[in-house]
Amino acid sequence: MTDQILKRWDAYFGPQQPEIIIRSPGRVNIIGEHTDYNQGWVLPGAINQSLYILISKSSHPTHHWIAHDLNEEVKTAGNSSLPDWAKYIDGAIAFYKPDIGPLHILISGDLPIGAGISSSSALVCGMLVALQEMTASSDSKVDLARLGSRIEREVIGVQGGIMDQYAIMMSRPGHLMLLDCRSKEFQYIKVELKGYQWMLINTKVKHNLIESDYNQRATECSEAVEIIRSKFPKTESLRDVTLNILNEVDLSETLLQRSRFVIEENDRVLRMVEALQKHDVLDAGRLLSASHEGLKTLYEVSCPELDHLVDFANHYKDVLGARMMGGGFGGCVICLIKEEAVVNFKNSCIESYTDRFGFSPEFILFELGAGAERICKA
């Protein structure tokens, strides 16, 4: 992959090598959806599919940024007419090193865009690592992860939590990260699935979280907390709420459903850790399926394409469980499947999905990989 992207760099900028090459991965979240901005628990991990960011200072008076896989480029910065991907770059520079001067940047890789595996967070985190390397600063990965989260909130307007940035920055190969989104503490959970495989199924329905109901869900959770706090003053977030407490407060049906999902999903995260540590793949599968049912009926962030894939997978004999993954309204389904069944499942799933929607889904087999890092040409 590095050699291929270096050839692309040469085509755009000439034979002089880039100063920095950063590999910034996408991330999966095994379970714990919409719990991060509610100060709950999540269970993400970086994957081997990644964005690569090649960067050098430019002798020209203006920036020149290229998103190769989108066939787009910009030669300016700091204005509202920038395409979305360039706003992440512009935000990273503005927050981290606004006086760095004009840059040549090439972005490419094998990370699907709009699939719910955090290509946008991979971009902003990768840019921050690149800027840190270029300036030889002493910021830690934790510092950069928190700054990346700020950029997404304050520049882009996505009111998410810290899960994506922590997973992209600090994951370990073969491990998931049990992250407490309140304390920001995390621990690594080693994952061994003998005879089984995680798989993503991309609906190819691309979503933009700003234009969806994502921010509305965060607002609804905040509204629920305000009402609960009037009777239980120590309530800081839905992390502090139990199902028994819900029975004692007067919430609208919508706020009740949102709150119930978050409470139950937090519990599923901790139970998933136990299942994986015990190598109990059956329980892990059941937790995935229960998570999707809550996301569909209580949190209402699914869509017909996601529901079709999850239903198909959960009725397939060699799939242990499946759920939508990510913010919702499109993106990917994650499922746990027997390794020997992958090929037959893919063929059957393609036929079913194409009959219903007229196009094929995309299948992504992934490994749990390392976080964002500087790499060198092999």
What would your notes on this structure say?
This protein has two domains: 2-191 and 369-374, 2-Layer Sandwich (Ribosomal Protein S5, domain 2), CATH 3.30.230; 196-365, GHMP kinase, C-terminal domain (Alpha-Beta Plaits), CATH 3.30.70. It has helices spanning 2-13, 84-96, 119-135, 141-156, 163-170, 214-231, 243-246, 253-277, 281-297, 304-314, 342-357; strands spanning 20-29, 41-42, 44-57, 64-67, 72-74, 103-109, 175-180, 186-190, 196-202, 319-325, 332-338, 362-365, 373-374. It has a six-stranded mixed β-sheet, sandwiched between helices. A four-stranded antiparallel β-sheet has the order 10-11-9-12. Strands 2-7-8 form a three-stranded antiparallel β-sheet, with helices on both faces. The N and C termini lie close together (10 Å). The chain contains eleven helices and 13 strands.
Concise synopsis of the structure shown:
With about 375 residues, the chain is α+β, with helices and mostly antiparallel strands. Helix content is about 40%, strand content about 20%. The termini are close together.
